[in-house]
Amino acid sequence: MQPKAYTLTLNQVEQDLQSLGNAPDTAGLVLNLIYRSRHKSFEQYSQLSKKARDHFKENYAHELPTIVRRQNSTDGTVKLLLGLEDGESVESVLLPFYKKYTLCVSSQVGCAMNCKFCFTATQGFKRNLRPHEIIGQVLKAKEVLKEMGEKRDIANVVFMGQGEPLHNFEALKEAISILTEPKGLGLGKRSITVSTSGYLPGLKRFEELGGVNLALSLHSTNDEVRSRLIPINNRYPLNDVLAQIDRLERHERQTVEYEYLLIDDLNDSKEDAKDLARVLNTRTHMINIIPFNPFPGSEFKRPAPERVEEFKQWLVEEDARVMVRKTKGDDILAACGQLKS
Questions:
Q1: What is the DSSP letter of 236?
Q2: What CA–CA distances, in Å, run from 158 to 4, 123, 277?
Q3: Among residues 14, 91, 133, 164, which one is catalytic?
Q4: pLDDT at 280
Q5: CA 111 → CA 128, 213, 217, 272, 294, distances in Å?
Q6: Residues of 94-127 as b/e, b for ≥16 C-beta within 10 angstroms?
Q7: Residues sharing a CB contact under 8 Å with residue 224, sequence separation 6 or more, in sequence order
Q8: Which of 190, 192, 227, 308 has CA 20 to 30 A from 207's CA?
Q9: Which position among 104, 115, 118, 336 bears the catalytic label?
Q10: 126 near 110, Cβ under 8 Å?
Q11: How far apart (Å, rounded) are the C-alpha atoms in residues 195 and 57?
Q12: 299 in active site
């Protein structure tokens, strides 16, 4: 099987060019063709020798994942079910914002964490995605935006789709390296967020990811409730997870996002809000309240809008930094916790 063109790094391209007798400073042209100007042909770049052009065309596979199904929400969200080479599939979600899109990507086929609030958990864990399958989601989404005639581009990538990203650390690390290569896709590290359920082995290596943003699926400060929602809390208790996050180096003004899935009559009381503020007010934080998004077979319910606002106000009264995430794509099962392939 040919290696994938869209996992090539600057260093790899430079080495290939040198072996072909080309100046390595043309490596940026090759990366531009692979990651940014996929509609163009290698033949249009006379700066590269014919030998080099043929090498990158013939020795690397340029195919992207196939679109099995595309769904469009009434709010502009686009969900893609992408087919992989072995017949498996994953979902990615394009989320529209003013002047930009955020792309939510998957890191695994299924998930091993078995979180009870997440539709992905119901399909079990099948396998990790490889780096080219992660990058392929980004490039395919860019193609879709171009086909839509959309002038807005993907400005942020969030690893909040199917799978626990830190459970697939090596592929995650390589994918982030490719995403942030200035001569390739050129995303800033602060434009990438990795969300985790609290997988401690991966958190201990988080600094290897080079300064991307971190989001923790918190959902409760009560260990009994959190273990019900996130079973790995039994193995990696919240106190240990928070202590590890405290040890991580962060850039100036970089905060940790603490995601709090608000579930009716489970974690939405005033006491819950007070406990949450007590745990986080000594830490640099942003609490992101996410009203629960129902899915087929779910045992939980979304609280009323009035309750969501009340919970937010309780946190404000405790001097916590807090926002409510606007639900997008729930009519096509594309909102947080609703993905399943």
A1: S
A2: 23, 21, 25
A3: 91
A4: 97
A5: 9, 21, 15, 28, 18
A6: bbbeeeebbbbbbbbbbbbbebbbbbbbeeebbe
A7: none
A8: 227
A9: 336
A10: yes
A11: 36
A12: no
Size of the chain, expressed as the number of residues it contains: 341
Q: How far is CA 333 from the centre of its chain?
A: 17
Which pLDDT value is given to residue 39? 67
93 CB-near residues (< 8 Å, 6+ apart)? 77, 78, 79, 80, 103, 104, 161, 329, 334, 339
- The 8-class DSSP code of residue 167 comes to G
* Dihedral pair phi/psi, residue 109, rounded to 5°: -90, 110
Ranges of the chain whose pLDDT falls below 70: 39, 45
Q: Which letter, b or e, does each residue of 214-235 get, where b requires 16 or more Cβ atoms within 10 Å of its Cβ?
A: bbbbbbbbbeebbbbbbebbee
Give the other-Cβ count within 10 Å of 148's Cβ.
12
Q: Assess whether 336 carries a catalytic annotation.
A: yes
Reading the block at residue 89, the tokens are 């599939």
The domains located in the chain, with CATH, are: 5-58 (1.10.150), 66-332 (3.20.20.70)
